[in-house]
Amino acid sequence: MACWNPRGRADRLPEGPEPEVHSIEDGQDPLKRIEEIIQRWRKEGLCRPDEVMILHKESAVEESFLGSKRVIAGCNLRDVLKAGASDLRHTSINKAKGLDAKAVILIGCPPMTEEVADSDAYVTSPS
User: Fold this and answer.
1) Phi/psi at 107 (5° precision)
2) Are 73 and 105 in contact (CB under 8 A)?
3) Which is it for strands 52-56 and 103-107: parallel, antiparallel or unpaired?
4) Cys bridge to 78: 36, 45, 47, 83, which one at CB 3.0-4.6 A?
């Protein structure tokens, strides 16, 4: 028997956008880049903002790149535990264990040193 979840069946989770790697150069606004990505995904029909989860490495959102921002791409930004059905969700990477989303944006992480297949992707810290 499959386990049900409001975002899809556990044995048939919805497919989201293909993995992308973006780097923020000095002087670029990371929040503007996040908005551009979410708006592009919506325009291309890949996912809606409420199907996206933003993960940050800091436990407190105020200490992350999100800072005091509470609206991104026209959607309310809410902690995953307090988010409503139409909200853009966020949480720390450590708190995200066991959660799922159609699309995930990682922010504030060190650059990836090599590309890997999505089936082989793991988040690690540099040596």
Assistant:
1) -125, 150
2) no
3) parallel
4) 83
In eight-state DSSP terms, residue 84 is -
Tokens of 3: 């386990």
**C-alpha Rg value of the chain to the nearest Å:** 15
Q: What's phi and psi for 33, nearest 5 deg?
A: -65, -45
Distances (CA, A) of 3 to 7, 27, 55, 67, 87: 11, 45, 24, 35, 23
pLDDT of residue 115: 60
**Higher pLDDT pick, 1 / 57:** 57
CA distance 47 to 38: 8
- The answer to whether the predicted template modeling score (pTM) of the entire model surpasses 0.90 is no
Residues 6+ apart with CB under 8 A from 90: 53, 54, 55, 56, 61, 66, 77, 78, 79, 80
Domains in the chain: boundaries? 30-110
The secondary structure of residue 12, as a DSSP letter, is: B
